[in-house]
Amino acid sequence: MERDKPKGSAAAPRRYERKRGGQARAISELMPQVGRAAFRQFGFVQSSVVSRWPEIVGPAHAKICAPESIRFPQGEKSDGILQLVVVPAHAPFIQQVTEEIMERVNRFFGYRAVARVKLRQGAVTPPKAEEPRPAPPSLKPIPLELGDSLRDIGDPELRAVLESLARSLGEAESERTED
Asked: Where in the chain is the domain with CATH 3.30.300?
């Protein structure tokens, strides 16, 4: 027996449509989600170990070694083996500082994630040198003639908006005098 349908109404299922619009997202913001499965497949629990390697071990070590994988015992998330790729000429040096590298990686994880380090000689691509970024608007100096009058404003949100306005006015004024 068929259910009674109201006459004149279309009973076609509605297709879900994602809302469009909004800001475009930077690819660097999307990479952790995209790369997470691939990193796990190759032994990395956190992709941030790879992306933040220069921060973890320092720029000098990051130029000559890179993490390849972290292998944990079955069912465990501690006492793993960190495998590093090392520039062949620097392998003896890295072998001498493996305790320091283990300590830094464990400090990054917050627990004893790595118990051993294995070295494999190979090519290492050094991390890119980051360009200095321009200061955010809130850290740019306010023109001196406007700065004193803004300090007396008690509401921090209003003060931030007025400081931003003062900065943009100062930039516009400096551009006009240059022309």
From this structure: 29-121
